[in-house]
Predict the 3D structure of the following.
Amino acid sequence: MVQQARWRIGILLAGALCSTVFGQNTSYLLGPGDQISVTLRDRKEIEIKPTVIGLDGTVELPYAGRLRAEGLSTEQIAREIESKLTSVVRDPKVTVEVTDYGSQPVSVLGAVNRPGVVQLRGRKSLVEVLSLAEGLKTEAGNVIKITRVKSYGPVPLTNAKEDVTGQYVTADVSIKGLLSGSAPEANIQIRPHDVITVPRAELIYVLGNVHKPGGFPLAERESMTVLQAIALAEGVQPGAVTQNCKILRSTGAGPRTEVAVDVKKMLQNQAPDQPLLPNDILFIPNNASRAVGLRILEAGVQMATGVVIWGR
């Protein structure tokens, strides 16, 4: 199920990327930071170098002077330039292109393959922006967090709310709903200066006498059980003392508590499978490691997760 969901988002992202790269977007409106190139047809003697639109939304061009560019399309500003050049050139034909985008930045942070700042270059949905960040990592968590400057309008999601300053609107998007297509309304239009944050999934750690010790992301599920965690660790090794396992559970600021677990009875269906909580450490001992202390186990967590976090 999880792999199918990841496959679906890969197809969606690939399609969005193709439309981003190859599609013609005529709705782009110029803004401060964009660089434009101005060309006069059949007038090679008049050269206008690429120029950046200033923070005040205007651009200074030879022969045409200072023009208001912010909020105009390339076609609209081309007509404005033509009207200014009629006193210099007979029947000017002007073409304007954006040679560098800089007015519609969006920050994409966290568990994506290419975090950083991307430019919208017109209208883009959430899936399309994630495609520009090369998609989600396998350790992505359960939600995508969106933060928007209030002046750019509301976030059209039912859980949207203002922050304490009243200057921003925040909302959460369920990754599971976005991946499965069960919540198409979650694929909202992204606005300039939005911040898209994809937190990493919380982990369950399995250490000791198992085939693949390490940290396992919860991802779409909110919890997992002892036997599910052992299955992700590819089972116990020969010599494991499964009746003397333990869960080390964080209680906040204090030391972890120790919970005894009889995995042997669980495997024999003589005891219920026990749920694990985020950041739990499940330790499967052997005869030589039955008395391993908490500090050694927590050091093992650092070593295991420092080497690899296993995706599913």
